[in-house]
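Design job #97: recover the sequence.
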């Protein structure tokens, strides 16, 4: 009888491709385990554990980093599976579980990451932001600054367009085309913006 397998899935933050692999429970328990991307630039790593808990390092296609996770033996080896979360955005960034559970979830994750990468190039708001909460707070602050006529360009124009990106908002002068990028990824970005009464776009020379 074939030994049951567990599936691993994540999206490579370097090439953007979904990475999928299956391992037997014996292989998982035997020692350190690595699930490598074909591009060779990322790998999900799981240590040999202490019999109760296992430490994982998970590449994240959502934020581009690598996250640490600690999972208990029962969650890893039994049940439908677990989702591994991006520590920055709180979005799922990887899965471990039954192959029939991991495959569709990994496909959804890969599609979400691809949309987020394409969004800035297409000039539209991405479906997910680097940090949803920070982005919405930044947009709210920008609305307040605009409401007191605090956004203008050094060319003399007060007309501007707003382009929402994955981790920033661009303010673009509609007369000279100059742009000011407002970071919208961290608490520090939000704190800096909250201290501003006005925002000035530097006109093109």
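Job complete. Output follows.
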């Amino acid at each position: 009888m074939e030994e049951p397998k567990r599936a691993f899935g994540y999206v490579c933050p370097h090439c953007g491709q979904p990475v999928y692999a299956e391992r037997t429970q014996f292989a998982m328990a035997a020692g350190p385990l690595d699930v490598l991307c074909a591009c060779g630039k990322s790998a999900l790593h799981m240590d040999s554990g202490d019999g109760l808990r296992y430490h994982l390092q998970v590449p994240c296609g959502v934020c581009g980093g690598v996250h640490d996770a600690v999972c208990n033996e029962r969650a890893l080896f039994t049940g439908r599976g677990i989702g591994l979360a991006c520590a920055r955005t709180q979005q799922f960034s990887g899965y471990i579980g039954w192959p029939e559970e991991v495959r569709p979830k990994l496909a959804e994750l890969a599609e979400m990451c691809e949309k987020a990468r394409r969004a800035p190039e297409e000039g539209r708001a991405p479906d997910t932001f680097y940090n949803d909460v920070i982005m919405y707070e930044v947009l709210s602050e920008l609305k307040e600054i605009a409401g007191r006529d605090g956004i203008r360009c050094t060319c003399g124009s007060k007309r501007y367009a707003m382009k929402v990106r994955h981790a920033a908002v661009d303010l673009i002068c509609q007369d000279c085309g100059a742009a000011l990028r407002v970071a919208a990824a961290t608490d520090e970005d939000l704190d800096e913006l909250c201290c501003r009464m006005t925002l000035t776009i530097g006109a093109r020379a």
